[in-house]
Amino acid sequence: MHILITGAAGMIGSKLTKRLAKDGTLGGTPIDKVTLVDVVAPPEPEKASFEVETLAADLAGTGVAASLIPARPDVIFHLAAIVSGEAEADFEKGYRVNLDGTRRLFDAVQAFSNHYMPRVVFTSSIAVFGAPFPDAIPDDFHHTPLTSYGTQKAIGELLLSDYTRRGFMDGVGIRLPTICVRPGKPNKAASGFFSNIIREPLAGKEAVLPVSEDVRHWHSSPRSAVNFLIHAATLDGKKVGPRRNLTMPGLSVTVGEQIAALRKVAGDKVASRIRPEPDETIMRIVEGWPRNFAPERALALGFRTESSFEEIIQIHIKEEMGGEFVA
Amino acid sequence: MHILITGAAGMIGSKLTKRLAKDGTLGGTPIDKVTLVDVVAPPEPEKASFEVETLAADLAGTGVAASLIPARPDVIFHLAAIVSGEAEADFEKGYRVNLDGTRRLFDAVQAFSNHYMPRVVFTSSIAVFGAPFPDAIPDDFHHTPLTSYGTQKAIGELLLSDYTRRGFMDGVGIRLPTICVRPGKPNKAASGFFSNIIREPLAGKEAVLPVSEDVRHWHSSPRSAVNFLIHAATLDGKKVGPRRNLTMPGLSVTVGEQIAALRKVAGDKVASRIRPEPDETIMRIVEGWPRNFAPERALALGFRTESSFEEIIQIHIKEEMGGEFVA
């Protein structure tokens, strides 16, 4: 089996690559080769049992996507995107990378569709939804994104469905919750604080909380994100049916509940490293974000995630901090 | 006031042009100039009080959309599209005309957005919805189109919302019901029979009915379509809010109710000119189509349509047949 990962140098892409290297198989089939693509050269995984090809290229560039498909990757994980903050700050770049890049990839698959039919897993986002919302957003709620990033992801979903319906590919789109705890340095996502307030205090550093503690949001761990991708790559497409895009399960918690979980897992001293510093801009952005979902279809299809925020914190401590934090 | 109409040679475009020529004003403001664009040169209206410019050009072609905007049309009616049947038969043409054409037009407005802010009225379609449906589709129902045409219209809606949110334009998207009775010759739309079974018998000709009489669908007259466009062009954008796309009101009737209305208006002999001839392909397509809506937002914003199918037939007889039909 040959696997192609776009956006492979990103946080989720590199975790997925590590997981594939560890498993050596996908859905029970041995992996022969993994092709990793990103705008910067993705690092090769250590100790992979399969061939690894890395490529630094812009998927939205002429001919780039088309060059990747003749090798017939059986599974394509299309993760490449610029994040919400950047897509909002740079209108043209957002549409070029997130819309044109996706379309060029799908068109490259379409152009080759007489020869084969790959499973294409597309990472969409809960940013396709925009306020006002019902208490728990159902699977049939409309897409009225309030950001260009959400717009671009919603368009990607529509293309994925139509190209799948036409038999050009076998697509599954998964709307990821906000990934928490995001490791490493903050990126340009306005949602960064949801992770900062856990990751930084655990590392002995102060973290700024720009919103009030009653802000509710929808989370899952990086480990769950990788599990979602693997499950989306291997599940029976017939069971998905014509509606190819799925809201992934998550955990609906308030910032106050996040902090209480941190206190429970790591103690008062760690939790006291969170410093409230209200930021009107971030508060306004976050107001338009979803708070809770009823992801019935994904649950019925076997997608699973964490059931408590303590578990999310413990995963971070185990997987990113070698099991130890700064008390 | 300067008005630009794309797709001006089409059925709705030419009726809109006639109406503007008759009114001489839009929303109380005198019209100075109307620019009519289509792939074939649109006919000029008779007796217009304003300057008329016609242009035969492909909106998806390089530089075409960009050439139309520096004249700063105050209102842009973006009607240009290929219909569902053609977009389904020709994948590339559908995406080029319906998606790229729309995006190029919106991008041309965006590139000029430091200079002015036009009202852009975009004709979307109920084809953005795909079965299964609730009994009456609410305004917050998701878009899962089952055709490429519906996909392209749904993408146009998303772009319109985002470009409006960013302040590049003042967009209003209207999801037109199936227009009935469509005058003239059949086009490639699979929905053609809804009009054929009224128009042809009234003209003394036989019409083929390819589906069963219990098929229910959502209709409004060409006159209503023009009224929707005029209302969308002149209503207060602030009242629309951030959700810029609206399902237009319509009339939910079965084919049997259409035939009963024809019998009531024109008599048994006319109604007997309908010949059932089941067509599996059309039946399968129609199964995925919406049957009924609860278009609360559009009604609250003052959009109105016919309240009986008899009225729809009478409008056709009056406006297209000079008040007389072949009994």
What report would you give on this structure?
The structure is a homodimer of 327-residue chains. By secondary structure, chain A is α/β, with parallel strands linked by helices. Chain A has a domain at 2-177 and 220-247: NAD(P)-binding Rossmann-like Domain (Rossmann fold, 3-Layer(aba) Sandwich). Chain A is 40% helix and 19% strand. Chain A contains 13 helices and 16 strands. The interface between A and B is medium-sized, with 23 and 23 residues.
The second-level CATH architecture of the domain at 2-177 and 220-247 in chain A is: 3-Layer(aba) Sandwich
Radius of gyration of chain A: 19 Å
User: Can you give the mean pLDDT of chain A?
Assistant: 96
Question: What fraction of the residues of chain A are assigned to beta strands by DSSP?
Answer: 15-25%
Name the CATH superfamily assignment of the domain at 2-177 and 220-247 in chain A: NAD(P)-binding Rossmann-like Domain
Q: How many separate helices of chain A?
A: 13
What distance separates the N and C termini of chain A? 45 Å
